[in-house]
Amino acid sequence: MSVLQLRGVSKTYGQEPANVHALGGVDLSVQAGEMVAVMGPSGSGKSTLLTIAGSLEEPTSGDVLVCGMALAGMPRGRKARLRRRVIGYVFQDFNLLPGLTAVENVALPLELDGVAVPKARAAGLVALEALGVADRAGRFPDQLSGGERQRVAIARAVVGDRRLLLADEPSGALDSVHAEEVMRLLHEACARGVAAVVVTHDAQLAAWADRVVFLRDGQVTGRTTRPPGPESLLTPGEIR
Amino acid sequence: MSIPHVLLALLAEGPKYGLQLREEFEAGTGEVWPLNVGQVYKTLGRLERDGLAESDGTGPDGPQKRFRITPRGEQALASWLRTPPDLTSPPRDELVMKVLVAARVPGTDAHEVIQAHRMYLVELMQQWTRLKEGEARDDLGLALVVDAELFRLDAVTRWLDAADTRLRRAAAEPSRPASVPAPVPQLRRLGARR
């Protein structure tokens, strides 16, 4: 089942003649358990695609469906509920609230959704546990390392019963080995049935995805398919 | 790839038989680089001839013969480890050639050519990443080999991105046409490696 579907999505900013076409007729479908990377240079429209997929912005034309529900015409309150319950976001700069501990940050979306505090905190701890940072639950963001902050941010994005994870350059400024850990964690979330869209300009991060969509000037310029297994890489000719 | 020096490195851990060396070589490189046993004995013969390794007996090379590194071999190994490979001249890269040529051939969209190569590289990187997710997780040698390959492919995709942007910029500036210098003479001047 498609958790996210974009059908002919276009986005234009500004008025003629000074308007900017950020996206032009993009089609994208992401299934449960699948990770799709959207790759492109700066200004290619990838962040716009993500904000539209996350219902933070409306397309100029085209349809966006999350878990089969069309966002167009959806009342604001219902859309906000969908954002809190179904969609999780991972940002480049973590976006953790500095005045809250790790577990409070993770539990916050549930509390905002009306879940009782003890129940929300318990779910927050479960999410932190899954990401290996339960022992940091009581620490504030400035008491955590970069890698730990990003784990907490991912825990916040998947807490509860989120179905769709949207990540914008999720490894931030982490070095390549830590960035790999972040992708591994997102991959594990997908293995648990979450659908993920990862926006990045980094081919090494995009390579973690099941499929890669290339964007340039708001248009899809190519798509990879699910890659074959790595067996073929292990049987090259003998070296000399 | 210097097989003699890798074999010397394995012998530096202690005396070993030829078959053992082949197994350890393959395991240490994540089995990405298979090695023929005949190649192992041929190389060991050369190391012995050059005084870098020595064996138990004087008979023909075979599974019964055990090899050890000599002090000269240890010196050669230490020197090889610290000597950078020759990277002074650029390799004659087929992909670079294709992009340079695509930019000159009338009616050819160089960006489309670049995208085709970019997609192939990313697909290849996806395959290497699957390896990293699986077998390389608990195999340090393989993880290092996979990293090296991913960084190499990543560098090529970055070059393609830069080439794409440069060609677009050049095309947008009519005073500076998007022509590029003739590739072959330029690379010859630089003394390209093959």
In whole angstroms, how far apart are the ends of chain B?
15 Å
| Percent range of helical residues of chain B | 55-70%
**What structural class results from the helix and strand content of chain A?**
alpha/beta
Q: Major sheet of chain A: order of its strands?
A: 6-7-8-3-9-10
Regions of chain A with pLDDT < 50 over 5+ consecutive residues? none
Portion in beta strands of chain A: 25-35%
Largest sheet of chain B: 3 strands, antiparallel
Overall geometry of chain B comes to elongated
- Helix and strand sequence of chain A: EEEHEEHEHHHEHEHEE
The termini of chain A sit apart by 49 Å
What order do the helices and strands come in, and which of them pair?
The complex is a heterodimer of chains A (240) and B (194).
Chain A (H helix, E strand, L loop, with lengths): L1 E12 L6 E12 L3 E5 L6 H8 L7 E6 L2 E2 L5 H10 L1 E4 L11 H11 L4 H14 L15 H13 L5 E5 L7 H16 L3 E6 L2 H4 L4 E6 L2 E5 L17
Parallel strand pairs in A: 3-8, 3-9, 6-7, 7-8
Antiparallel strand pairs in A: 1-2, 1-4, 4-5, 9-10
Helix pairs in contact in A: 3-4, 3-5, 4-5, 5-6
Chain B lengths: L2 H9 L4 E2 H11 L8 H13 L3 E3 L10 E4 L1 H12 L11 H9 L7 H24 L6 H33 L10 H8 L4
Antiparallel strand pairs in B: 1-3, 2-3
